[in-house]
Amino acid sequence: MSPTITWAVTRRVLTQLRRDPRTIAMMLVVPCVLVTLLWWMFDRDEVMFARLGPPLLAVFPFIVMFLVTSVTTLRERSSGTLERLLSMPVGKLDLLLGYALAFAVVAALQSLLAVGLTVGLLGLDLEGPVWMLAVVAILDAVLGSTLGLFVSAFAQTEFQAVQFMPALVVPQILLCGLIVPRGALPHVLGTVSDLLPLSYAVDAMDRLRASSGVGSDIGVDLVVIVGFVFAAIVLGAATLRRRTA
Amino acid sequence: MMNLTSEAVTIENLRVVRGGREVLPGLSAVVSRGQITGLLGPSGCGKTTLMRSLVGVQRVQGGTVTVLGEPAGSVGLRRRVGYVTQAPSLYDDLTVRENLAFFATVLGAGSDQIARTVALVGLDTHVDSLVGRLSGGQRSRTSLAVALLAEPDLLVLDEPTVGLDPVLRAQLWSTFAELAAGGTALIVSSHVMDEASRCDRLLLMREGQIIADGAPDALLLETGTTDIEAAFLSLVDQEVAA
Predict the structure, then answer these.
(1) B165: burial class by Cβ within 10 Å (0-12, 13-18, 19+)?
(2) pLDDT at B2 exceeding the cut of 70
(3) Average pLDDT for A181-206
(4) pLDDT of residue B5
């Protein structure tokens, strides 16, 4: 592993993103638009908005970042640059970490915008501290991007990559407690829900909504999310193959 | 320094299967340092698969490939072997300079190397152009520049002169000759037989096998022909007759 190479990858990915203003705009604007749509849907029913706002602040950036990263690394594959890089002195982890860092920067921007809008303009009621809401939102977006990086290793084409969204993200949305509280799920599904990263993201948001203190419960949620982030990076690196058929 | 023999590459009984088809059924060959070795043969005969095996990105089913004294694909070789694929492997949304700077960091090459390689491939006037906006020839030269950054001991070039005008082709071949004179081993594939005379040595390939190995003049003499294309055809005839 080499910090110099990791950082070079991060800078390169950010430069490439900068050349594509439309993608950046979509990444930054779409979660904001979705949150606004939610607020409008409940026609100033502040109670419902306060109930659904925080969990969806976890879900929207998660989805957007997942989609973008699952396709981005495929470009690296189809352009032949991945093979070129892997024939050079690049650690697989350097590559994955470099990508993850670059997308973490975007994820942070995106989440700060969405949280600022939700709390500032749309007047979300929250018991917990706003900065914590931002931290959780950023971590969730980073989680989405690292899971996207991981699954992109299993896709050969963009068509395959976008299918991971309904296959891997929608079940997480169904089981994360947003529609049916996790405790009320059938036993087996409750266990599955315990194994899915998005459940912990939504749990953390729910705790912030309901209680003013930053307790150890939320600490556990965050540790689990960070664990999933690193597991996705390490597993993503492990699936890269220098030799291919 | 690690290996004082003149052999840059030794291939023994290399067997590669791709998509259920045996592309290389058991190929053996040797490539020397300080020479341009031409790998000639029709499209689909296994040239690219052989080159990928030398670089260590091809999954192989059997045999050994030794490059600069180490097994192909070893960690120690990743800076010493330069590889240019047929389709340029570059970031289209970065400029020539940004592409080179990124790969230079990865290879641990300095900024003086970027300037040197840009001049070597004649892209001085295009360093700040986006690669996606370059012509096909300019893109393949950028890809070549990346491979030259770390001054590799072995250069593996897959059809590097396709789509280049005659002047540029001549320039590149003289660059290759200079590199070879400096001790670099070059393997250059082509399906254009008229480039054969530029090589010090030729490996003629057909259906995953080396059907002839020697200096261009020797091959012409042996087959009693006047150009490599005729020599190739005569060798194929001999093989079919045998």
Answers:
(1) exposed
(2) no
(3) 94
(4) 57
Q: What is the pLDDT of residue B3?
A: 45
Closest partner CB to A88 (pick from B18, B58, B107): B107
Is A22 in CB contact (< 8 Å) with chain B?
A: no
**B39/B192 Cα distance (integer angstroms):** 10
Q: B58, A89: Cβ pair inside 8 Å?
A: no
Query: Does any CB of chain A come closer than 8 Å to the CB of residue B83?
Result: yes
ipTM of this predicted complex?
Answer: 0.89
Instruction: Give phi and psi for A211, each to the nearest 5.
Output: -130, 150
**Is A119 in contact with A57 (CB distance < 8 Å)?**
no
Listed in sequence order, the residues at least 6 apart from A241 whose beta carbon sits closer than 8 Å to its beta carbon are: A86
d(CA A87, CA A131): 43
Q: Establish if B102 touches chain A: CB-CB under 8 angstroms.
A: yes
Q: Is B127 helix (H, G, I), strand (E, B) or coil?
A: coil
Residues with Cβ within 8 Å of residue B239, at least 6 apart in sequence: B206, B211
Determine the Cα–Cα distance for residues B117 and B119; give it in Å rounded to an integer.
Answer: 5
The radius of gyration computed from the CA coordinates of chain A, to the nearest angstrom, equals 18
Q: Say yes or no to pLDDT of A21 above 70.
A: yes
